[in-house]
Amino acid sequence: xxxxxxxxxxxxxxxxxxxxxxxxxxxxxxxxxxxxxxxxxxxxxxxxxxxxxxxxxxxxxxxxxxxxxxxxxxxxxxxxxxxxxxxxxxxxxxxxxxxxxxxxxxxxxxxxxxxxxxxxxxxxx
Amino acid sequence: xxxxxxxxxxxxxxxxxxxxxxxxxxxxxxxxxxxxxxxxxxxxxxxxxxxxxxxxxxxxxxxxxxxxxxxxxxxxxxxxxxxxxxxxxxxxxxxxxxxxxxxxxxxxxxxxxxxxxxxxxxxxxxxxxxx
Lengths: 125, 131
Description:
The complex is a heterodimer. By secondary structure, chain A is mostly helical.
């Protein structure tokens, strides 16, 4: 008996025992945001005349379209990064593949957010 | 005893379960989530093309017979987003401890699938100017 720590003390900083609540809350907060903003974005974009390039540019350049798109993009890319992280953690068990996919997920979500937000501001301002 | 366990059904394993509505809606929630991810990647790239004026790069997607294939893809994405939205709303109610009865859950799974199809049809009938 060389280890006098309790079972809880042994596992507490490891695996899913350290960040689950934060992930859960972040997933639900972004879900609540999307519950409000996603229908507004989808319906107004569908009625804007997209995918015609000029009609879509007019939509994204309008204050209403730009704000709705920026809100949707921010919540959606954040929410989908959290969601795909769970999918990878559930199905991919090879350590190298899992690490690679989790890293790719973060880089794709963050990179696309910055690129799309910059593109949107270019159109709107 | 140990040899008996190997022949027992392994749960939760797809082949050991009879399909029911909430199982389908749970799997669809994951699948549509991944579908929405792909759609968001496409939308973000399109936004960058619009800003740089290079959307003609993907102009072939909207010309001739290809336009219909693209449209089917966009209709599928609209359904995927609609389904994930309706079922996500239910997940938020579940998080609040509401709606766990099996019969009601199965019924709501079917209603959610129906609602997502109706919402997709409505958006596209408006967008195509049919109604």
